Amino acid sequence: MKHCTFSFTTALGAAALLVLGHMPQARADASADLVAKGRYVAEASDCSACHTIKGGKPYGGGMEFKLPIGSIYSSNISPDPAHGIGTYSEAEFARAVREGVRKDGASLYPAMPFPSYARMSDSDIHALYIYFMKGVQPVAQAAPANGIPWPMSMRWPMIFWRAVFAPSVASAQKDVNRTFPTPAIARGAYLVEGPGHCGACHSPRGIALQEKALSASSGTAFLSGGAPIDGFVPTSLRQDQRTGLASWSEDDIVAFLSTGRNLKGESFGGMTDAVYHGTQHLTVEDLHAMAQYLRSLQPNSPNVAAWQYDPAAATALQHGDASARGAKVYVDHCAACHRTDGHGYAPAFPPLAGNPVVMSDQPDSLVHVVQSGAALPGMTKAPSAFVMPSYSQMLSAQQIADVVTFIRGAWGEQRLPRRCGNGHQPAEIRSPAGAGRKTRSAELNQRQRKVSGMVAGHRKAATDAQKETGAGSSPAPVLI
Q1: Is residue 50 part of an annotated ligand binding site?
Q2: Domain boundary at 119, 142, 170, which?
């Protein structure tokens, strides 16, 4: 009996030691898994694009955002205790991310997309906090001081801005849990409306710079296209004809989010940063979920007709007729990559025919790319990089205006047609002959003058930037 008791006790003790011996390793594995999840959430939230400057240490801050009232700089969000968030508790971290309130109680400027981050789940916030505290190296450097003059620099008015325009965490979470057609679309909505904060750029803003809609449940203004940012106009991500994603398949969207390019176009400006730092790292399942959600969004302008290709411009160019305004400039400088038929050599060189950026009512993006040049960096799934030269020193402002006007009018009158209050095109624009010709000519001249003014504005901005930085005569290439 004693022998049996001893054997049982010995076995029980050995089992206990075995379990206890594995507990530190289990905790280490769980911590590593949490850090990995937090890294993924950070990538889905595009944190690095704003908080890591080129050539700088990860999450050390210092990214400049130029606003009409001055410049602000992204903060250091590394776990450095003096200059970063190393002394933040998880509750303080969550409040900053989802409510826009710092540890000291001061308000964050809404350049930080906390109205979108309010939708993030507790588990994602927890993983994100663990990642920043355990998976990121401290960066012992202070971000530059903001350049907003007093009294605009005061933060206390943001208390009222948050109360009016930023959702509470509770209300945002309730909206996240609304009914969706499928679990995949629900997941896509969470990623797009929440951590992805796509609306911060792709939704219009009101007079107080608030997003007019924070989710699809708020109306069709959500993701219907944003205001110019750094010279580029974010397009509609809804199922809008011409200027949206109506002609893009689910696979087109997935390819774009994972590589910055597809058969329809290429990313530019801040969208390239979002792909490079963020969406290219997401799983295929999450990318398809985002694509399915975007394809579920009804158009903001349902009466716009689908674009139809018109070969007239291509036929003229292929027969040596470059008499149209801007056509010769296009043949000499653009056709080698984008072809006389406007179809390009996608995904290397994007098509211009049928491109939502080209058909936008605002030509800012096209002007900026032609004038400043562009570069698409290599991605994990598409390692080749492509560069478009800057034409600001090769072409005059008039030539740039002419070629942009030509591109926006070729291959099927790509510019979004003006419409009457009843949603129909004016008769003089519909008519291909007679009085319509005079109206079309006057309209073309008006469009060309608008583009000319925009070119001059972009050129002045580039010159001013060169004076400030001491750069040479050629403006720095812009990522596209």
Answers
A1: yes
A2: 170
The response to whether 338 counts as a known ligand-binding position is: yes
334 is in an annotated binding site: yes
Q: Residue 201, annotated ligand binder?
A: yes
User: What predicted TM-score, i.e. pTM, was given to this entire model?
Assistant: 0.82
Phi-psi region of 244 (alpha: psi -120 to 50; beta: other; left: phi over 0): beta
Domain containing residue 370 = 312-421+430-479
Pairing status of strand 70-73 against strand 478-479: unpaired
Residue 3 lies in a domain: no
pLDDT in tens, 160-178: 999 999 999 999 999 999 9
Spatial CA neighbour of 119 closest among 41, 34, 48, 197: 197
* CATH of residue 437: 1.10.760.10
Q: Tell me the two tokens of residue 102.
A: 């710092």
Domain boundary among 170, 187, 205: 170
CB 423 within 8 A of CB 303: yes
CA distances, 392 to each of 83, 163, 401, 457, 459 (Å): 40, 45, 11, 12, 8
* pLDDT digit string, tens, across residues 214-234: 999 999 999 999 988 888 999
Torsion of CA 26, 31, 33, 37, to 10 degrees: 160
Q: For residue 365, count CB atoms less than 10 angstroms from its CB and return exposed for 0-12, middle for 13-18, buried for 19 or more.
A: buried
State the amino acid at position 422 in one-letter form. Answer: N
Torsion of CA 88, 94, 95, 96, to 10 degrees: 70
198 annotated to a ligand binding site? yes
Instruction: Give the model's pLDDT for residue 24.
Output: 58
Is 126 annotated as ligand-binding? no
343 annotated to bind ligand: no
User: Residues of the chain whose pLDDT is less than 50?
Assistant: 1-6, 8, 12, 17, 19, 416-444, 461-480
List % helix, strand, coil for the chain (3-state, nearest 5). Answer: 50, 5, 45
